[in-house]
Amino acid sequence: MERQMLNKFAALLLVASLAGCGGGSGALTDVGAPTTLSGSPDPVSTQAPTLTFTGFAVVHDNTEAGYTAKVVVFFSEDMDPASINSQTFIVRGPDAKLIAGTIDYLGVTAVFTPTGSFIANTDYTAEITTGVRSAAGVAMAKDRSWKFHTPDPSELTGVLVKVASTSPSDFETDVHLNTGVNVTFNRVMDPATINGSTLVVADTDGNTVAGDVHYTGVTATFVPSVPFAPNTTYRINISSNVESLSGVAMDQDYHAVFTTGTTLGAAAPQVVMNSPMDGDSSVSLGTGIAIYFDQAMDTRSMNSTNIAVFAPTGEQLDGTVTYAGTTAVFTPAASLLPQSVYTVRVAAAVTSAGGTQMGSDYFFSFTTGSFSLSAPLAPTVLFSDPAPDAWGVACNTKISIAFNEELDPTTLTTDTIRVTASDGSVVAGTVSYQGSVVFFVPAAPLQSQTQYTVTVSSRVKSLGGVAMTADQSWSFYTIALM
User: Fold this and answer.
1) Is the N-terminal amide bond of 153 cis, ω within 30° of 0?
2) I want to staple 367 with a disulfide (CB 3.0 to 4.6 A). Which of 51, 210, 281, 407 is the partner?
3) So what's the pLDDT on residue 60?
């Protein structure tokens, strides 16, 4: 298996070695006009609504064993608020006893807040019934239930609300004019705080770009009303007024800049890679399914209607779709069957953040293995570039990390992939990924003749939801100036 993984992603680990050095220093537990909040792709859609994302957010500790928390659900459509209630959104404890609570609904998001406390380190079950209806009056096709495990209070300390990544990334150049903007957070956010006042795109003269803001899961999408101007620098502004579902705000505003080129670009988004790959065999029964796009996508279109998985019988599987960066992950509601062929359809209706549909369906198939492959392996680092204890590393290097398993992109942030200097200072940068390879790009050149340590957190998970067994760290040394 390791050899297969190395062959599959060897091409992704080609790192350019550039000359010169800089001398300067340098879990998902909660996981504005004319803007609309979390609207559906088609407010008059006659399709049956589906779940696109579920989450659990701790508000604050109450006791050593329990805490106030929220269960959140995102739908693929605008819903009829009257249908979202305690009879259609149900949470049960480990003994199947109903948990009393209140339910709020906003945009495409329903939030359950219990009357009492959740117990730490405990399994709960949530259910959405077919009593829920879209704004057009269409009921969900079948009941959906899922299990979640409440974390230990010790896991909830020291995690701040941050922007995990943007697309376009900070300082990116030659950006296509018909692109949109995606902002991925490291926590599930309060949808009421993600809007056109808190997510703003403007040019360097301060002229605000008109557009819509949508939010699902951990990713907000800004869809501009018209294409960006050529050869222009734009600034993405995220206000510190955005809050996680736990009510925690960012400690400061976040800014990123990008510069457009002169080409409109390939308007239609494309699938550039998927996992499993077409024709793969002996696939784990507990795997997730990842779709990698060539550009930022509109979060509204990332749902189990547009990304559908079919069993050998032709029946569509239940599951949820999580979207982060440029990657969508379908997580089946139950384990796959052994030695069976599954087909994945990415519908033509999936839409880029720039507002353009893909235009044609994309299909691929894979075959599962035996019951012995029912549990995915825990991720571990196979190798990295720079390698452990490497000397003379260029100061403008990009760090590449290859894993034995393909990874859940929502767990890959600057919280879980950290680079620190020998004086303990944290290196600013961005994290990107494809399949089982993660890249860390420092925001500025590293300091010369300095030891740097890379730490991969045990909060990193595989597509199958298995976390690393422990943190992994190693160091390398930058080149000395002559």
Assistant:
1) no
2) 281
3) 64
Q: Are residues 223 and 277 in the same domain?
A: no
How far apart CA 474 and CA 384 sit, in angstroms, is 9
> Mean pLDDT for each consecutive 10-residue tract of the chain (482 residues)?
38 32 35 33 66 79 69 89 95 92 89 90 92 93 87 66 84 89 87 93 95 87 92 96 86 92 84 91 88 89 91 90 86 89 96 91 94 72 93 92 88 89 90 84 90 94 88 93 61
Pairing type for strands 172-175 and 254-260 reads parallel
CATH code, domain carrying 463: 2.60.40.1220
Is 38 among the domain residues?
A: no
Q: Which domain holds residue 438?
A: 2-28+377-477
| Helix, strand and coil percent figures for the chain, each rounded to 5 | 5, 40, 50
Length of the chain: 482
Q: Do 55 and 152 belong together in one domain?
A: yes
- For 443, the token pair is 């925001």
**Nearest Cα to 391, choosing from 448, 348, 334?**
448
Into how many domains does the chain fold?
4
CA 353 – CA 20 distance, rounded (Å): 37
pLDDT score, position 310: 96
Looking at the fold, whether 310 and 284 belong to one and the same domain comes out as yes
pLDDT at position 362 is 96
- Indicate if 289 and 362 belong to the same structural domain: yes
Residue 282 one-letter amino acid = S
Q: Residue 11 contacts by C-beta under 8 Å, 6 or more apart in sequence?
A: none
